[in-house]
Amino acid sequence: MASDEPDSLKDRIARVRRAIEVAAARAGRTSESVRLVAVTKTVPTERILEAWQLGVRIFGENYVQQALTKIDRLPREAQWHFIGHLQSNKAKLAVELFSMIQCLDRPSLADSLERAARASGTRLDVLIQVNTGAEGSKSGTTPEGAEDLARRAGEWPSIRVKGLMAIPPYFADAEQVRPHFRALRHLAHRIRSLGLPGVEMTELSMGMSSDFEIAIEEGATLVRIGTAVFGDRPVKTVV
Q1: Largest CB tally within 10 Å, which of 119, 143, 186, 207?
Q2: CA distance linking residue 105 with residue 212, whole number of Å
Q3: Structure confidence at residue 138 (pLDDT)
Q4: Does the pTM of the predicted model rise above 0.85?
Q5: What is the pLDDT of residue 19?
Q6: What pLDDT does 135 receive?
Q7: What pLDDT score does 42 carry?
Q8: pLDDT at residue 232 in the model
Q9: Of 154, 145, 147, 148, whose CA–CA distance to 126 is shortest?
Q10: How far lies 150's CA from each of 105, 189, 197, in Å?
Q11: pLDDT under 50: residue ranges of the chain
């Protein structure tokens, strides 16, 4: 059976869960304090449904339009987080589809999300995305701007700021990313100490397939893992 093959989805998920447990134990934490967000970018719906059947409960998608059919095919109990760059004109649809937006990076998006959430009568959980490496190719506010964005977003009644998210620079040596994770944790502590209304700062979304164990050691509560769960993405070819 496919599930008994060495590189089956079942085995991949088991390895990731075990790695989460070990990393959490090293940090003196319980494995329950870390939640797996299985990244579904380019992953076929059948594969995502199989992951659900194997116990995965949170999925992260990068594109609003691609999420439509995937979400429709999975049980309503599945949680979906948006983890890509979100255009303000997609805010209404994103609010309808996702239980958490992990990529709040500018006041104009906060305004759009607030209007959409208020119109739908929901309270939307968001994470502020911080560009810890100051990389021009990545979205995210600056560490210095995160406090102002939290203050602004926290004033909106239909938005609840739950914490921070970051996609640090990639390093061949994963240990080199640790300062970025640590800086995000310290930033969350600083913002939490302000006692801003509507701002909880209980979640840290950081760490991917190559470095999630270090992220857990530095306080991650959500780890966004694609390749280690679903395998390598197909290579795009130019026709």
Answers
A1: 207
A2: 22
A3: 84
A4: yes
A5: 98
A6: 76
A7: 93
A8: 85
A9: 154
A10: 10, 13, 9
A11: 1-4, 237-239
Helix, strand or coil, per DSSP, at residue 161: strand
CA distance 161 to 166: 15
Do 181 and 207 touch, CB atoms closer than 8 A?
yes
Q: What is the pLDDT of residues 82-123, one digit of tens each?
A: 999 999 999 999 999 999 999 999 999 999 999 999 999 999
Helix (H, G, I), strand (E, B) or coil at 127: strand
Query: Whose structure tokens read 């840290």?
Result: 204
The residues spanned by each domain of the chain are 2-228
CA–CA separation, 135 and 117 (whole Å) = 30
- CATH code matching the domain that covers 2-228, chosen among 3.20.20.10, 3.40.50.360, 3.20.20.70, 3.40.50.11720: 3.20.20.10
- In this structure, the chain runs to a length of 239
> Which whole-number Å values give the CA distances from 212 to 1, 18, 164, 239, in the listed order?
30, 12, 16, 35
Burial level of 139, CB count in 10 A (0-12/13-18/19+)?
middle
Token pair in block for residue 71: 């979400």
Q: Are the C-beta atoms of 146 and 106 separated by less than 8 Å?
A: no
Q: Tokens for 16? A: 């990731």
Tokens of 70: 């995937």
Q: Which amino acid is at 138?
A: K
Beta carbons within 10 angstroms of residue 129's beta carbon: 27
